[in-house]
Amino acid sequence: MTCALTTTGPRTMTAPRTATVRRVRPEDAARMRALRLEMLADSPLAFLETVAEAAARPHAAYAARIAAVAHGTETAQFVADPGGRLVGHAGGSASPGEPGLTVIHAVYVTPSWRGSGLLGALLDEVAAWSRACGRPELMLEVVVGNDRAYRAYQRLGFVDTGVRVPHPRIPTLRELQMRRPA
């Protein structure tokens, strides 16, 4: 699968099936909620809340969150939209302690789309946004032992920094930090 990249707008995946990778919009709130619940059910160690916590949040809270990240330079979320249910997500936030750094978070690709190139397209959008905001470096954290994600990020140019940090919710787990230019 190849990506047809543009310099001024969303990137579109081209292959037997297509998905546009773009920044979330306020009208995505219901579909983003559905994707968030899928993310948490599929990969519970990768995210900072449980399915139950997310399911308990009212729709208005999702709508407010999506509206808040649809614009601006501090936090952004990007989705893969094939024209129905959303199939991928990646977020980025400015690092408060490191002005030139965007921290990537909440990266997810629906299982049937994994290996399609969608992960790279999502991270390319985060990187483009980061550069436009004056932050030339990206950082993400991966649970130690999640070799599939680790290898995927390596293929996309991320390098293990050697830094290990405690998992924010499960003290027995560690996360490793990876970085690359935006």
TrEMBL record:
Domain N-acetyltransferase: 19-182
Keyword vocabulary terms for this entry: Acyltransferase, Ribonucleoprotein, Ribosomal protein, Transferase
UniProt keyword RNA-binding, yes or no: no
Domain of life: Bacteria
GO CC terms: ribosome
Pfam families found in the cross-reference section: Acetyltransf_1
Protein name, as recorded: Ribosomal protein S18 acetylase RimI
Organism this protein belongs to: Micromonospora viridifaciens
